[in-house]
């Protein structure tokens, strides 16, 4: 009875694993490792997906890439879900104003995915976030701020279910996550003080949809000394202002409904 659901899940994990390795592509073994699936299973799935254009092989190699049918489907979905047109000038303005790397991320289920990156003028940058990077809610500042603005019941269920410290260290155990939530709710913005990569800081503000749900986040990242105590509140307030304006803009368009 669960077979169709399981199959869809395996396909989704395989396509996401291929996407991680774009544009160079990945071998079947690499996709299987990334997706956490047996190699023969992944080979069958990717071969079947190739027949309908959802994957294809890089000519002359054994690497898989996403297929043209995904582009066509994505183009059709853009009219409903694309928010980057409104977010891009905001992200560029943040990078120009602060000199830091600026980002726009979206919530997708229990993860955030980075959609836009713009680097500022400061030459030393953090490379934790990049376009296409995914992190669980509660990890990196975008995931922290979105999680903190969810309803208490949803937070409680999520925190009880996930185990982030296994992959991201003791600084992401349940007690620490709840401390981050409390601090974020106090300030309105989230701060990641080098919890994923030492010395790489981030600060983020949530962007809300018309229903008041945290659907996206604006983030600034950089090296630790650029986020000192005298500057951090200024960056947080700037993000909050830009996030509020972007929330109103997206709500007026009906984007993401």
TrEMBL record:
<dbReference type="InterPro" id="IPR036388">
    <property type="entry name" value="WH-like_DNA-bd_sf"/>
</dbReference>
<keyword id="KW-0804">Transcription</keyword>
<dbReference type="Pfam" id="PF01614">
    <property type="entry name" value="IclR_C"/>
</dbReference>
<keyword id="KW-0238">DNA-binding</keyword>
<dbReference type="InterPro" id="IPR014757">
    <property type="entry name" value="Tscrpt_reg_IclR_C"/>
</dbReference>
<dbReference type="InterPro" id="IPR036390">
    <property type="entry name" value="WH_DNA-bd_sf"/>
</dbReference>
<keyword id="KW-0805">Transcription regulation</keyword>
<dbReference type="Pfam" id="PF09339">
    <property type="entry name" value="HTH_IclR"/>
</dbReference>
<dbReference type="InterPro" id="IPR029016">
    <property type="entry name" value="GAF-like_dom_sf"/>
</dbReference>
<dbReference type="InterPro" id="IPR050707">
    <property type="entry name" value="HTH_MetabolicPath_Reg"/>
</dbReference>
<dbReference type="InterPro" id="IPR005471">
    <property type="entry name" value="Tscrpt_reg_IclR_N"/>
</dbReference>
<protein>
    <submittedName>
        <fullName>IclR family transcriptional regulator</fullName>
    </submittedName>
</protein>
<feature type="domain" description="IclR-ED">
    <location>
        <begin position="69"/>
        <end position="252"/>
    </location>
</feature>
<feature type="domain" description="HTH iclR-type">
    <location>
        <begin position="5"/>
        <end position="68"/>
    </location>
</feature>
């Amino acid at each position: 009875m669960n077979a169709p659901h399981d199959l869809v899940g395996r396909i989704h994990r395989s396509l996401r694993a291929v996407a991680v390795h774009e544009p160079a592509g990945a071998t079947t073994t690499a996709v299987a490792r990334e997706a956490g699936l047996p190699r023969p299973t992944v080979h069958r799935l990717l071969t079947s997906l190739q027949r309908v254009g959802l994957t294809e092989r890089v000519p002359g190699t054994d690497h898989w890439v996403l297929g043209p049918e995904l582009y066509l489907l994505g183009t059709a979905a853009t009219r409903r879900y694309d928010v980057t047109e409104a977010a891009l000038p905001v992200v560029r303005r943040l990078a120009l104003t602060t000199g830091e790397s600026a980002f726009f991320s979206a919530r997708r289920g229990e993860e955030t995915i980075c959609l836009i990156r713009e680097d500022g003028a400061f030459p030393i940058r953090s490379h934790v976030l990049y376009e296409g990077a995914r992190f669980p809610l509660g990890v990196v500042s975008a995931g922290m701020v979105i999680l903190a603005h969810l309803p208490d019941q949803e937070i409680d269920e999520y925190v009880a279910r996930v185990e982030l410290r296994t992959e991201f260290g003791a600084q992401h155990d349940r007690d620490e996550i709840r401390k981050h939530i409390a601090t974020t709710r106090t300030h309105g913005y989230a701060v990641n003080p080098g919890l994923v990569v030492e010395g790489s800081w981030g600060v983020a503000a949530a962007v809300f949809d018309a229903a008041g749900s945290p659907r996206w986040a604006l983030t600034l990242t950089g090296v630790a000394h650029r986020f000192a105590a005298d500057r951090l509140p200024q960056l947080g307030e700037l993000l909050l202002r830009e996030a509020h304006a972007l929330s109103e803009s997206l709500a007026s368009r009906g984007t993401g409904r």
